[in-house]
Design brief:
The chain is an all-beta fold and 90 residues long. The protein has a single domain (7-79), classed as Jelly Rolls (Sandwich). The protein has strands spanning 7-13, 31-37, 40-44, 47-51, 56-59, 65-68, 75-81. Strands 1-7-2-5 form a four-stranded antiparallel sheet, with no helix packed on it. The model has no long low-confidence stretch (mean pLDDT 95).
Amino acid sequence: MRGPSIDLGLILLKSGDKMAEEPHGHNIIDETFYFIKGDGVIIIDNKEHNAPEGSIFLIEPKEMHNIRNDSENPIKVIFIKGDFKPDDKI
C-alpha cells in the first residue's frame, strides 16, 4: 500500500540477501520493521541487532538502516511508514 497517508509493504529476503546494497535513512519519517517469518539481522547506525521472528524495530528519522538474512531460510519483514514520501531518502 502506498500513499497518501501510509507506506506499507512486505520484504522477502532469501538466504544471503540484503534489503539494499548500502544502508539508507529518512530525513522526516520513521519506519517500523516487523519480522513475521524467520530470523534476520537489522543494522541501525552501523550496529547489528539480532532480529528474531516476531521482533519489531522502530527506526527514527536520520537513523541509517539495512536488513540482512544470514540464515539458510527466507525471511519476511513488513515495513510501515506513517506517510508516503518516496523522496525522503538519505
